[in-house]
Amino acid sequence: MRAFLIRNFLQRLLLLFFVSVIAHAMVHIAPGEPSEVDPANPRMKPEDIAKIRAAFHLDEPLHLQYVYWMRDLFTGELKSFKDSQPVLPKIAGRFVNSLPIFICATLIVWTLAFPTGIHAAVRRGSFYDRGSTFVAYSLISIPGFFLAYLVILWVVQQFGIPVIGMRTFGASEAQPWLRFMDRIWHLVIPSLMSALVGIAVLSRYVRSQMVDVLQQEYVRTARAKGLDNDTVIYRHALRNALLPFITMFGLMLPALIGGSVIFEQIFAWPGIGRLGYEAILARDFPLVLTINFIAAVLTLAGTFLSDVMYAMADPRIRLS
Amino acid sequence: MAYSATTLDQTNSTIAPPDSPARQAWRILKQDRLASAGLIILAVLILIAIAGKWLTDTQTGFDPATVRLVDKLRPPMASISDLVPTEERPALGFYLLGTDDLGRDVFSRMLQGSVVSLTIGFVAVGIATVLGIFFGALAGYYGDKRLGFISVDNLIMRFTDVMLCFPTFFLILTAVALLPPSIYNIMAIIGLTSWMGTARFVRAEFLSLREQDFVEAARALGLPAWRVLFIHMLPNAMAPVLVSATIGVASAILTESALSFLGFGVQPPDATWGNILSDGKSYIFDAPWLFFFPGFAIVIVVLAFNLLGEGLREALNPKLRSR
Q1: Of the candidates B273, B177, B226, B284, which has an alpha carbon nearest to the alpha carbon of residue A276?
Q2: Which alpha helices (DSSP H) does B2-105 contain, by range?
Q3: Residue B85 parent element (H or E)
Q4: Over the stretch B76-135, which tens digit does the pLDDT of each residue have?
Q5: Helix or strand or coil: residue B95?
Q6: Domain, as residue range, for B245
Q7: Nearest one of A142, A14, A319 to B165, comparing CA atoms
Q8: Chain A positions in Cβ-Cβ contact with residue B162 (cut-off 8 Å)
Q9: What's the number of domains chain B is made of?
Q10: Nearest by Cα to B253 from B268, B275, B236, B237
Q11: Which domain CATH number covers B276?
Q12: Contact A281/B177, CB-based, under 8 Å?
């Protein structure tokens, strides 16, 4: 077990290295540099551009730039091109903002997807099953921002739930519990919207797992013993159907960064996805690269976690 | 059911040849109502796109770029103002889907958009599928060959892992933002960032096919490796590729619209459903048709691709065959 963990960990470190090299090369080789963000500005003389390039190490060879990036990243010295603020605290602040949406969305997904999927599997072929299939595919097929705009129109007119930003402007003077409730209300729609596609995908997956398990011999045996339906479904079948979902906990980690760009943009949520989007617009290479790097770390940590958890939960799997 | 059918045939002493796999898949697909609906919608859409390509390219009455400032933001079915010169009037005699903020005919723009959106979907998926098959086939078939210290299989699959580590949408966004905005770049980037799934299951299929007798026979005949790989083995590995390609077109169209929303999509004057939709969002109260027509068009088409893909997955699943 320990040998497996260590080898797996080292493999992932190696992968991470290659990911960072490729990301770095891609961003730097692509046309467009921070020094060219404002080419129309007549006050930018060639020597100014050269000065900027030298300040950001952009005039050095690519592999040296990579070394500088890595050195600065791990000593915490890495600074944004745009405003010379340290990159890591900047990312950490936005990360904390994104976390509530991620946690709420994940909770919504996992609490809704399972009942929906199990119910559909138990009543396979029923009106409910076909209806939920259709609704799930519709949710997957709607462009996220289109649906979000429709929901915003409807929700604001009907219920007056706030949809923009993290808190109501000027509410910082209010009572603590009012401020808290304000924060919660602002969370509702963004987390619901980010959860919708997840619910659709996961409930389909739960359904197909459940359908597979319900057809197995041991379920028939359980029924033949005369157990009641609930015991068969929830104690015998569900336990085995749950197995693959242990891995999905880990696989959902990277959605923390990648999945949030559009929704944070729509709801003016100062989260990490939006930070990345702004950094891309400003050609802020250190920020873009570091967010990419953190996303890769999350992905690798997620798959590592899911491998280990799967092996711990399923005795049929041996780590070798 | 299959059993009773054969006994029936034997009593009549005429043994019918069994259905070919394609025929069986087709039969199962036809029974799936949602998938059939998806197939019909897509067939109609492709006809519309071909007609739209011809109309918007050749007929001035369907020119999607004609600006008529007197007739801006007209609702659907609105008649044409008398001030519009005759050569700039839309061929239908009225604005079927209204006009946008520059007085361009939304119907013509949607026609042009159907071509561009479908092209993006098909080309991006084409790139992803070709790459996926190529890498997957090499890794599966030549897995044991060693290049120095690392086997081919290891090399290709570790590269796939590296690609999977990037957050896909963020990667696409970075690449699209850094490269000059053009429709070809968008197709290429979506294609280059979505081949990993295909590569993985093509490899899995090839690993098991490699050991089978017909492959051994093909090799024994002295056929060149590319023939064994792509003429003999590949058709047997196509089922999952087809399914993921169908669903891939759907997600490519969605990705394009998401990029358009962030301002990195296909640039004007080219119209796609994604950029008509994202331009329309600013007029959601004054001219809701600019938002709803492209929005629902995308939903219907993407849904059709997804349902067809799921139908294909069921139809091509060997477990469900010969029922």
Answers
A1: B177
A2: 2-11, 21-31, 33-58
A3: none
A4: 877 777 777 777 777 777 787 878 878 788 888 898 889 988 999 999 999 999 999 999
A5: strand
A6: 32-321
A7: A14
A8: 15, 18-19, 22
A9: 1
A10: B275
A11: 1.10.3720.10
A12: yes
B12, part of any domain: no
Quick check: is B24 in a domain? no
Gap between the Cα atoms of B280 and B282, Å rounded: 5
* A79 neighbors A286 (Cβ within 8 angstroms): yes
pTM of the shown model: 0.86
Identify the band that residue B199 occupies on the pLDDT scale cut at 50, 70 and 90.
very high
- Is residue B20 assigned to a domain? no
Is residue B7 a part of any domain in this protein? no
Place of tokens 């730097």: A28
With CB atoms and an 8 Å threshold, state whether B262 touches A262.
Answer: yes
CA distances from B210 to B133, B138, B218 (A): 15, 11, 11
- End-to-end alpha carbon distance in chain A: 7
Structure tokens at B298: 């995308």
Cα A168 off chain centre by: 26
Q: What are the DSSP calls for A34-75, one per residue?
A: GGGS-TT-TT--HHHHHHHHHHTTTTS-HHHHHHHHHHHHHH
Q: Can you read off the two tokens belonging to residue A177?
A: 């519990």
Tell me if B60 sits within 8 A of B89, measured CB to CB. Answer: no
> What is the 8-class DSSP label of residue A79?
B
Q: How many residues does chain B have?
A: 323
CA–CA separation, A109 and B132 (whole Å): 31
Q: Cα A213–A123–A240 angle (5° rounding)?
A: 20
Query: Interface pTM (ipTM) of the complex?
Result: 0.84
Give the closest of A15, A259, A280 to B158, CB-based.
A15
Tokens (6 digits) for A104: 């709420």
- How far is Cα A230 from Cα B8, in angstroms, rounded to an integer? 42
Q: Report strand pairing: B146-147 vs B78-79.
A: unpaired
Which stretches of A99-239 are assigned E, i.e. beta strand?
none
Q: Which of B156, B162, B255 to mutate to test the interface with A (most CBs of A within 10 A)?
A: B162
